[in-house]
Write a structure and sequence with these properties.
With about 210 residues, the chain is of the alpha/beta class. The chain has one domain: Metallo-dependent phosphatases (Purple Acid Phosphatase, chain A, domain 2), CATH 3.60.21. Helix content is about 20%, strand content about 25%. The chain has four helices and 13 strands. A six-stranded mixed β-sheet has the order 5-6-9-10-12-11. Strands 4-3-2-1-13 form a five-stranded mixed β-sheet, with helices on one face. The chain has a two-stranded parallel ribbon with strand order 7-8. Strand 2, helix 1 and strand 3 form a beta-alpha-beta unit.
Length: about 210
């Protein structure tokens, strides 16, 4: 499956299918926060594929003007075209604004999904706004990552963990990628286009 992830910066070239520079058309779009809702609406209409989003700490208009035809993935685990995908909005708390969470608050949100995780037995992709702690994050209070995400990665072992929030330009797509265990952690600033395969999770008896 071909997936387009976007976050933090409007990429106008993506709004023109003939000049977007992508190697193929996406089957799915994942939005990792801090983007105008109108931009997500346009992407959904242009590519005509499912678009799932979480909100960033600057997404203050989504309640009044939600992106049309798009689905919030905050604190949810869904199955889309065979992929198990979950998402978490927000950044670390720093001034009490919208979509900000303390570490204990985010830990509680993650724990609220454990029953679903036990039922599904696997997660293929996790999308967030903030990164995991000490992976792509920064030292200031706003841009620190969540320790809860590290624990989640180590326990669930998703193939991909995709975040936004950390603004950085990349000369090489490989610079976006770090690994935690076997999970590829991606900084999706601007956009990142990738392909993933469905892999059935083996049970202990296998």
């Amino acid at each position: 499956m071909k997936i387009l992830s976007v976050s933090d910066r409007v990429e106008t070239k993506l709004l023109n299918k003939a000049e977007n520079g992508l190697s193929a058309e996406p089957d799915l779009i994942l939005a990792c926060g801090d983007l105008p809702p109108e931009y997500l609406t346009d992407l959904r209409q242009i590519y005509a594929v499912p678009l799932y989003f979480i909100e960033g700490n600057h997404d203050i208009r989504y309640r009044q003007s939600p992106p049309v035809g798009c689905t919030s993935l905050h604190a949810k685990l869904i199955i889309e075209q065979g992929l198990h995908i979950m998402g978490f909005s927000g950044s670390r708390w720093y001034n009490g604004g919208v979509n900000q969470y303390t570490e204990p608050e985010m830990k509680k949100i993650v724990r609220s999904l454990w029953f679903q995780l036990l039922q599904h037995r696997k997660v293929d992709i996790i999308i967030t706004h903030a990164p995991p702690r000490f992976i792509h994050d920064q030292k200031d209070p706003c841009h620190k990552g969540f320790k809860s995400f590290i624990s989640l990665i180590k326990k669930q072992k998703p193939a991909w963990f995709i975040h936004g929030h950390i603004h950085k330009l990349f000369n090489d797509p490989a610079e976006r990628i770090s690994k935690v265990c076997n999970t590829k952690v991606i900084n999706s600033y601007g956009f990142f286009f990738f392909e993933t395969k469905l892999v059935e999770k083996q049970t202990k008896s296998q």
